[in-house]
Amino acid sequence: MKGTDEIRTYSFDNDGLNELKSFEYGKNWPVVYLIHNNKDLYIGETTSAEVRMSQHLSNNEKNYLEEIAIVFDHKFNKSVILDYEQRLIKYCSVDNRFQNILNKNKGQQAIHDYYNRDEYRSDFERLWNSLKSMGLADHTLHKIENENIFKFSPYNCLTGEQNEVGTDIIMDIINTFTNEKKGVSLVNGCAGTGKTVVAISIINSLMNTLDIEEDSVGEFDDDIDKQKIAALKELKDYILKKRNGKPFKIGFVLPMPGFRRTISNVFKQCGSGLVKNMVIGPCDVVKEDYDIIFVDESHRLSKRKNLTGYKSFDDTSRQLGLDPNETNQLEWVLKCAKHVVLFYDQYQAVKSSDLTASEYQDTLNKYSVNLSHHELKTQMRCKGGAPYIEYIKAIMNCTSTAFKTIENYNFLLFDDPNKLIEEIRKKDDQYTLCKTVAGFSWDWKTKPSKKPKDDLDTYLSLVEKGEFDISFGKQHYIWNLWNEDWITRKDSHYTIGCIHTTQGYDMNYVGVIFGKEIDYDPSSNSIVINLNEYKDKKVKAGMGEDELKKLIINTYTTILARGIKGCYVYACNKNLQNYLRKFIAVANDYTLK
């Protein structure tokens, strides 16, 4: 036996088992354990390490492992070890110290509140550092938490609300296939409610349904978990009896290319039944015979208007026997799967090609399907919670009447855009994933002809040649060098992003610059748009002022909601800056500490 004050390690064999029997916490006490060799790792929890180790030694799938590390504490209880087990699975799967995490997702994913949870969770960092010192982990928690694969991991613990929605959708799928009718699950949720995480969790559960054990329903105390496991077991029975064990063919549609690439890489790294080619674009729905299609950010599905590639749109439409001028990408999806799961927020439609709320509903009405409605209400991204999201919506709709203090959130207005950018860069140095984003009221003069490398050479060469896109006084700035993966590119520290580089992503802090195209009219208490100052030609083409105003307000509402810890704001137009001053605290040396 070796280890630390809170972790004991034993050889994973009968000698180690005999040694464990003499340990006071080896029997009848809740612990978390890690069984491993140099490449493979299995994480579990139990109230009797002795009994569980004996069971694992008799299991041919795990008895080749070499060592077991047991995490113990005299303060542990069942709720703590369930929480720690899930957290360790998630962090270790991203840390990549081990090539394979052997855990199968058994469905226990609800975030359970319990006595002194915050205290136990603060102790988790100490536990993780102990694992690092023992060579069982490589990276810090901070580094792991800023990785996309961590944010979108299939091992994310879901809230009770999220888990309930996931369970209901699994039941929708069961009803669709047992009744042999087309079905649609429509999930409404604003920015930050975890729509992508829920989608990935459900897909992961579906891909691992056949691994659900016969007696697994009794493993969990929480009703939500029991219901989810029961639903998955029912689905397993259907697959075994009606499909001869053949899993469902699943596609995960993401309309935005940059975000699609991010999630594709997450699936590539995850394993556990998730594979890269499951992540597809709208035009790809015709390439396979899908049973179930999930669509994230379905408000970004397009019609035939102001598109980059009309040919692919037309070809896909005709392949489905549809008139390109009459159809849209939502209709494609509905025709190409027996069950469709749509994640939707009408307030995040930001391009003229995006379906309007009425077009979206009309398309759903066109098909005779069993439509089930679900809703995600709880704010998961922003530390300011739902009050902040509702507050920014009211500000942008000019319905807010009084200044509100947002608890646990750094919401500040800057009088100098250069100072805002400087402070966001400081935050990026401190926390990473802190970026400045602006409205599209400057031409993208520096746009490269091909994707530059992920380094600073292109940016520095543009600076050296005196090229720039945006100016504030004597300070000059460059737009994002590339739309895809901008958030994680090295040059994003110095460049300024736009809505197309940020939608779908989380940032620790976001700086938002309201451009010259958007202003405030005090006489009518309304937001006004100057079409001459709006430079996104593809969005603007063929758009009326009212329609464009709605999209621009959606754009700013969306990027104002990107920040986890805080949001810094500046408006180029004086009237808008004065209007925002009524509702946002002005930054000063004290508030920036």
List keywords for this structure.
six-stranded mixed β-sheet; 593 residues; six-stranded parallel β-sheet; 21 strands
Rg on CA atoms, Å: 26 Å
The geometry reads as globular
The protein's oligomeric status is single chain
Distance between the termini: 47 Å
Strand-pairing-aware structural class: alpha/beta
DSSP strand content: 15-25%
Given as residue ranges, the uncertain stretches (5+ residues, pLDDT < 50) are 215-221
> Which strand order do you get reading across the main beta sheet?
1-2-5-3-4-6
Overall pLDDT metric: 90
Work out the helicity level: 25-40%
Largest sheet: 6 strands, mixed
Total strands? 21
Helical stretch count?
Answer: 20
How is the topology of this model organized?
Elements: E1 2-3, E2 7-11, H1 14-20, E3 31-36, E4 40-46, H2 49-57, E5 67-71, H3 78-95, E6 100-101, H4 117-133, H5 141-145, H6 148-151, H7 160-179, E7 183-189, H8 195-207, H9 223-242, E8 250-253, H10 257-270, E9 279-280, E10 292-295, H11 310-319, H12 329-335, E11 339-344, H13 357-366, E12 370-376, H14 385-396, E13 410-413, H15 417-431, E14 434-438, H16 457-464, E15 470-472, E16 475-477, H17 499-502, E17 507-514, E18 518-521, E19 526-529, H18 537-540, H19 545-560, E20 563-571, H20 574-581, E21 585-586
Parallel strand pairs: 4-6, 7-11, 7-12, 8-9, 8-10, 10-11, 13-20, 13-21, 14-17, 17-20
Antiparallel strand pairs: 1-2, 2-5, 3-4, 3-5, 15-16, 18-19
Helix pairs in contact: 7-8, 7-9
